[in-house]
Amino acid sequence: MRKVKEASRYAKALIRNVPIDDVPQALVEISTINEMMNKSKAFKSLLVNPSFTTEERAGVIKSLSQKIALSENTVKLIVHLSEIGAILALSDIIRIATNLYLDKKKKAKATVMTPIEMSSDQDSKLKTSLKKLTDRDVDIEYVIDPSLLGGVLVKIGSTMYDTSIRSQLRLLKDELIKG
pLDDT tens-digit profile of 146-166? Predict the structure, then answer.
């Protein structure tokens, strides 16, 4: 619980301190650092291990920022999170900050699983329907899953809408088993 509260606090600080139009870029930059931590144990150790000094960490991060074009805000955040030992909550911070940003911009992100690729006409109808449902502009990420057989599975935040044939068959099976 404490980890989530801490992540929420830093996510809110990120949204508050970065101009709203620069938030998407900041999230991309922070995600890049998070991916680097996941791929490189040495880099993660540098950020987490207390035997490294703040100056050493800051020097490596600033050198890295020049190579991968990190903004000053991102560098400050990574150095600060590293100093206080909250860098391990970076993935939670990214998730929470993304949700806060989308909420502030009156947007929602939907993941739509379909058995086939959607046409542009179907895409626009789905966006219109989801906008009515959520009262927000919806950015859709499509995932092709042939096991659905038909229909779609839509996930917006923690809410899931499942109209797939696979789920309908599962419900029918459950009804038959109950008798």
Answer: 887 788 889 987 788 888 888
